[in-house]
């Protein structure tokens, strides 16, 4: 695992563009797609929407080389690290647990969590919204989704921080740190699963789903469930927090669009899609080529890693009219903010429901908000795009006004 | 009467769910979150919605074709 840093895109490919600005990176993403680009590490960078969509569905393109695994994992993460028939098997098992019908039951929980979090600061007139809201909400919903007590959230947050920001001077030390955190979380989850199995009732939550789901009589083994939850914690807790922070930061600086959404929440589903396109919080991913092939202007060689930049595809002038403008009711919005092809984000429906429901209820409680004068949100340049801190001001209200 | 026929290429569809989110009158989600065409033959009134769904599909998996049989 010594060359792990060479295989996965740790640095934002768009950061090589002279126009790069972490606060407003859209122009740099567009520049990245203007002509074929190879990064300083020699990796091809795909930035045009059509190239990426066709590339991702090519049978010689995989999300893993079967040797290197992202996010401190020591085995292929299910389903991200698998391809072909094995990947299709797990997706057939997991898709129903994250389908719109399955996650709709969580809407009331999202609304009451928004109320609970907003009650904590609504009287103050200002807040650092990332920590107090954007990050707190998906964590609490994740625990609710699994069917675990809210007091268990700390197990997952500690694990997530250890894996995403591992301590240590060297890559080896950091990986060992992340692996130890993984061991601690697996021990905790094993206990949860033991208790649930002993109770005789799988339950209608995600843990229950993992214990009872089957395809052609084949059920998930304990090791598989632990592996799946490992990825869910990382993928589910960080990305929704990041997306919420980007969307609210944008709305805070665009009062007329915000007022439109406050007045008509039925526009939120389309508005969220448009802001996901524009902000593209999950900015890029990596793919591995298993056989030589040609596609459009590119020649790919077996054994090479390629960076695919979702954020660039989403501002491709060949795919979107006036892509640098936000149009809340944009038509022809075929964005790939949830990736494309067989590895389309498993949690996309959950993420959408959380964002739409959270914004709707947040707007009920706090309809007017702006960036705190004299302060600025700070956007990350690499990894997942998020606004932290997100200093927000609003008209203070008493906490029991709902 | 000439109508348009909606088809989804299952090989291309990756379950983004844009079609049934935007146009629940034409598409619905199955238990996996993949789309089912509710109305294969689209009426004149349904045509703009169907075209909208075609253009919003990230995988270009939806096609509209002429169908004189009006199935």
Write up what this structure looks like.
The complex is a heterodimer of chains A (402) and B (71). Chain A has 402 residues and is of the alpha+beta class. Chain A has 16 helices and 12 strands. Chain A has helices spanning 4-7, 26-32, 49-56, 84-94, 100-103, 107-119, 129-134, 136-146, 153-164, 171-199, 206-212, 222-252, 255-263, 268-279, 310-313, 348-365; strands at residues 37-38, 44-46, 61-62, 126-128, 214-215, 218-219, 285-289, 293-295, 298-300, 305-308, 369-371, 391-394. In chain A, the strands form 4 sheets. Chain A has a 5-stranded mixed sheet with strand order 1-2-10-7-3. In chain A, α6 runs antiparallel to α8 (136-146), α6 (107-119) packs across α16 and α8 runs antiparallel to α12 (222-252). The longest helix of chain A is centred in the middle third of the chain and has 31 residues, at 222-252. The termini of chain A are far apart. In chain B, strands 4-1-5 form a 3-stranded antiparallel sheet, with helices on one face. Chain B has a two-stranded antiparallel sheet with strand order 2-3. In chain B, β2 and β3 form a beta hairpin. Chain B has 2 helices and 5 strands; from the N terminus they run βαβββαβ. Chains A and B meet through α14 and α16 of A and α1 and α2 of B.
Keywords:
heterodimer, A: 402 residues, alpha+beta, five-stranded mixed β-sheet, three-stranded antiparallel β-sheet, 16 helices, 46% helix, disordered N terminus, B: 71 residues, two-stranded antiparallel sheet, 5 strands, 21% helix
Instruction: Give a short account of the largest sheet of chain A.
Output: 5 strands, mixed
Dominant shape of chain B: globular
- The total count of helices of chain A amounts to 16
pLDDT < 50 runs, ≥5 residues of chain A: 1-5
Radius of gyration of chain A: 21 Å
Could you give the topology of this structure?
The complex is a heterodimer of chains A (402) and B (71).
Chain A: H1 4-7, H2 26-32, E1 37-38, E2 44-46, H3 49-56, E3 61-62, H4 84-94, H5 100-103, H6 107-119, E4 126-128, H7 129-134, H8 136-146, H9 153-164, H10 171-199, H11 206-212, E5 214-215, E6 218-219, H12 222-252, H13 255-263, H14 268-279, E7 285-289, E8 293-295, E9 298-300, E10 305-308, H15 310-313, H16 348-365, E11 369-371, E12 391-394
Parallel strand pairs in A: 2-10
Antiparallel strand pairs in A: 1-2, 3-7, 4-12, 5-6, 7-10, 8-9, 11-12
Chain B: E1 3-8, H1 18-22, E2 27-29, E3 35-37, E4 41-42, H2 47-56, E5 62-67
Antiparallel strand pairs in B: 1-4, 1-5, 2-3
